[in-house]
Amino acid sequence: MGLADITARVAAALARAGRAPDAVRLIAVSKVQPLDRVQAVLAEGHRCFGENYVQEAAAKWPALREGYGPVDLHMIGPLQTNKAKLAVELFDAIHTLDRPSLAEKLARLAQDRGASPALFIQVNTGREPQKAGILPEAVDAFVAMVRALDLSPTGLMCIPPEGEDPGPHFADLAQMAARNGLTGLSMGMSGDFEAAIAHGATHIRVGSAIFGARVYPA
Ligand SMILES: *Cc1c(COP(=O)(O)O)cnc(C)c1O
């Protein structure tokens, strides 16, 4: 538990996989964590964080960036189209591009701003009806559609079904990315980031193993 422990486990998993020591970006997922825990991780020198809610991130990060300097901020939660403008102003990467209407909105914003956050396309590898994401068989066409909008997606993202071996989901995602010429793989959380690293993850999203259990307001 804690940043130093997770950093050491990431390094060990990379070494076991024969991958370079800097091949994975550790995104510390700070959603709903108390401010003092976030500040403690910033004080340890970590500068890459993930948030699930635009509003919460907008309330928290401008002041933290002022206090601690540049922070690489990743949006990893579902993104409503009407929050897309605020999201592209705040985040360096969006991991949850999951539908054509959001791609169109992000393309218009990129044109207006002359820049876009890094974009990951979320894939519903487990075909779960309650989960967002492009279905596996629709991924190639969706990547092409996003590129036709003049956006350059960085990679793919998935959240494997709970209680299932995540390995096959990670392997599927890696294969879909490779055949589409995408180098980014956002996969792996507190419970499975080592398996994700073995399957080629480039971005892991780790929350509770760094900060402790999340306490949601009652
Ligand atoms: C909350 C969240 C995480 C972090 O989960 P932990 O199990 O606490 O590591 C990672 N990815 C997404 C998409 C999340 O919503």
How would you describe the overall organization of this protein?
The protein is an alpha/beta fold and 218 residues long. The protein has a single domain, classed as Alpha-Beta Barrel (TIM Barrel), CATH 3.20.20.10. The chain is 42% helix and 15% strand. The chain has an eight-stranded parallel sheet with strand order 7-6-5-4-3-2-1-8. The structure holds pyridoxal-5'-phosphate. Pyridoxal-5'-phosphate binds next to strand 8 and helix 9.
Shape: globular
Range of helix content? 40-55%
N-to-C CA distance: 25 Å
- Average pLDDT for all residues: 97
What is the count of structural domains?
1
Proportion in β-strands: 15-25%
H/I helix tally: 9
| Gross CATH architecture | Alpha-Beta Barrel
Low-confidence stretches: none
Record the strand order, biggest sheet.
7-6-5-4-3-2-1-8
H/E element sequence: HEHEHEHEHEHEHEHEH
Structural class: alpha/beta
Main sheet characteristics:
8 strands, parallel
CATH class placement = Alpha Beta
CATH topology: TIM Barrel
Count of distinct strands: 8
CATH fourth-tier homologous superfamily: Alanine racemase
Secondary structure topology:
Elements: H1 3-16, E1 25-29, H2 35-43, E2 48-51, H3 54-68, E3 72-75, H4 84-90, E4 93-97, H5 100-113, E5 118-122, H6 139-148, E6 155-157, H7 167-179, E7 184-186, H8 193-198, E8 203-206, H9 208-211
Parallel strand pairs: 1-2, 1-8, 2-3, 3-4, 4-5, 5-6, 6-7
Bound molecules: pyridoxal-5'-phosphate (PLP).
